[in-house]
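User: what does the whole thing look like in 3D?
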Amino acid sequence: MEPETIVEQLQSKGHRMTVPRRWIIRVLCEADHHLTVEDVHRRLVENDIKVDEATVYRTLQWLKENEAVSQTDIGQGADVYCLIGDQPHHHLICLNCNHIVDVSDDLFAGLRETLIERYRFAPRIDHFAIFGLCEGCRSELARDED
Amino acid sequence: MEPETIVEQLQSKGHRMTVPRRWIIRVLCEADHHLTVEDVHRRLVENDIKVDEATVYRTLQWLKENEAVSQTDIGQGADVYCLIGDQPHHHLICLNCNHIVDVSDDLFAGLRETLIERYRFAPRIDHFAIFGLCEGCRSELARDED
DNA sequence: CTACATGCAAATCCTTTGCATCCAC
DNA sequence: GTGGATGCAAAGGATTTGCATGTAG
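Assistant: Here's the predicted 3D structure for the full assembly of 292 residues, as structure tokens:
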């Protein structure tokens, strides 16, 4: 997704566009994974952009409120942020080995429909973290129990 | 669910059963909602049970590892803990009014199957938090946009 | 010009940890 | 008796906030 698209969308909604905001959006666009606040901040510093970490927090919060990014607790201390874009994705996280597998969004098509129809609830399932056990750890743990 | 059942299950796995552990299990059994660490601790104090908050953290962590309770980030700062029991339940949380609706577990039957079949991943979907907009807030926000 | 965003530093809040003591088994 | 659990106090880490200053519109 292009930074300009997001910038324009936000401006058209009447939001102010500042230098830190532009840069944070750009960093998110260039990232191929989700990022923590610290990650975003580090990338800015690496590019000699002086932005306070509090500003990163505030900007990501603002982007989330404007449905441009998702915020997810993947159980690693700091929340991760990710551009929503056109193709949301989700994660399977192994409780044992912490390995993360990406899964596509169509997995949630049924759930989305049911929630809207049965509960009239419009879910923002843009970046789910599902915890559980991967195949390897499952068989390993089963073996240990003997 | 009865405290004794859980106590026995854990003992049979070779775990030590102490006074704080028994009480924390009891508090969880008597709660009809999920509780934060602080909630659990408060209820202990109210019953004149002197248990350190660090112990509550450690015990809940231990119960989670033994699949007796779920731990969920419902976006309110502190994580909430809940006995898994026989009938897991989940929550729809409105991003606008913060209202929480409980939903039953059968909503996730399809997702569980797909994850196991397609990814060989055994999800621990015992207490999901799905964020989104409830019907009321949705129409309210739609009205504001005009 | 003015409302809003930022930088800076301090505060807050949740959670974890080290270590001496205690107790379940 | 002994390994594991607890209490206590302190540390740690993520996130928020107050306020003076800067700046987009």
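In plain terms: Chain B has two domains: 1-84, 87-146. The helical segments of chain B are 3-12, 19-30, 37-46, 53-65, 109-119, 135-144.
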